[in-house]
Amino acid sequence: MQRIAVDMDEVIADALGELLARYNRRQKTSFTKQDLQGKWLWQVLPPGGQKLIEGYLQSDDFFEDLPIIPGSQEILQRISQRYEVYIATAAMAFPNSFAAKYRWLRRHFPFLSSHNFVFCGDKSILHADYLIDDMPYNLASFRGEGILFTSPHNIGVSGYRRADTWQDIAKIFL
Amino acid sequence: MQRIAVDMDEVIADALGELLARYNRRQKTSFTKQDLQGKWLWQVLPPGGQKLIEGYLQSDDFFEDLPIIPGSQEILQRISQRYEVYIATAAMAFPNSFAAKYRWLRRHFPFLSSHNFVFCGDKSILHADYLIDDMPYNLASFRGEGILFTSPHNIGVSGYRRADTWQDIAKIFL
């Protein structure tokens, strides 16, 4: 059985959406993902914005409350009947996030075994056939085939097979 | 550069020693590792012992206080100058342990980057040349070369290159 590793943030968990929502609420702004095409969040925020964002990311509950990327549950459930699915998240940058990420996965993806969760720093350590990830540098160090999941920051990146939505992922694997 | 993945419990962290110490203190017994040759801890404890042990493992602080397996710090530091060293621990069985394991590694192995920590369930996901582990089933599913680190429970196991101590590990890699 072939094995697919799936990133969490921006692939199944909408961390960017939650960051924007928290930032907009606090600062009474109205930034949207459309404002971020080809850019990282901190490139569009005014001075001081980056510090707020980092505070959200380091908080205990942030990763517990994330919205789900549309389609990821249904399609991953179907994919998991034909492939070994692993969830691989770069959690080491946010040591406070481990427990919250674990609970989020158990709650929203109960059909996946927690034995298939991987909290790592560097995705070159993954032994899998495919990696679905929004970060080009994760795909660059991965040994199998990388699939770039579209996120505002990677709009201009080429060189990888790309999926804009989970429907695109379904077309590849189902 | 070749890559070595190193298990935590019973390889660099003396979880068994700490379990015995806590159990003996509480039950006023004097079990030692010598009593466990070829057996798992729960095979030698009286009825009810297993439940105590599981309670220790699930507690928040257990993995924070573990003694260090002798030689692992010095030898791993020397090895890390010649190899990429990853720490790979099966943390998913104990979701409360993530943060404590992270802090333990940062405190006792500060020369390793946290980018090289992997908290997983199933070690077949590791892409590395070597895995040093006390669990035969972890070595069985690993794709590279497994090295069985001696622990009382695996005394009778054959079929793997074996290291009784970190000095044996040094002989292999240095």
Provide a descriptive summary of the structure in words.
The structure is a homodimer of 174-residue chains. With 174 residues, chain A is α/β, with parallel strands linked by helices. The first copy, chain A, is 34% helix and 16% strand. The first copy, chain A, has 7 helices and 6 strands; from the N terminus they run E-H-H-H-H-E-H-E-E-H-E-E-H. In chain A, strands 3-2-1-4-5-6 form a 6-stranded parallel sheet. In chain A, helix 4 runs parallel beside helix 7 (166-173). The longest helix of chain A has 13 residues, at 15-27. Chain A is globular, with a radius of gyration of 16 Å. Chain A binds chain B through residues 3, 5, 86, 88, 91-92, 95-96, 98-99, 102-103, 113-122, 124-128, 143, and chain B through 3, 5, 86, 88, 91-92, 95-96, 98-99, 102-103, 113-122, 124-128, 143.
Rg of chain A: 16 Å
Arithmetic mean of pLDDT of chain A: 95
Strand content of chain A: 15-25%
Shape of chain A: globular
SS element count, helices of chain A: 7
Most strands sheet of chain A = 6 strands, parallel
SS content category of chain A: alpha/beta
| Multimerization status | homodimer
How much helical structure, as a percent, in the residues of chain A? 25-40%
Helix-strand sequence of chain A: EHHHHEHEEHEEH
Low-confidence stretches of chain A: none
Number of strands of chain A: 6
Instruction: Give the termini separation of chain A.
Output: 14 Å
Largest interface: A-B, 28 and 28 residues
Spatial sequence of strands, sheet with the most strands of chain A: 3-2-1-4-5-6
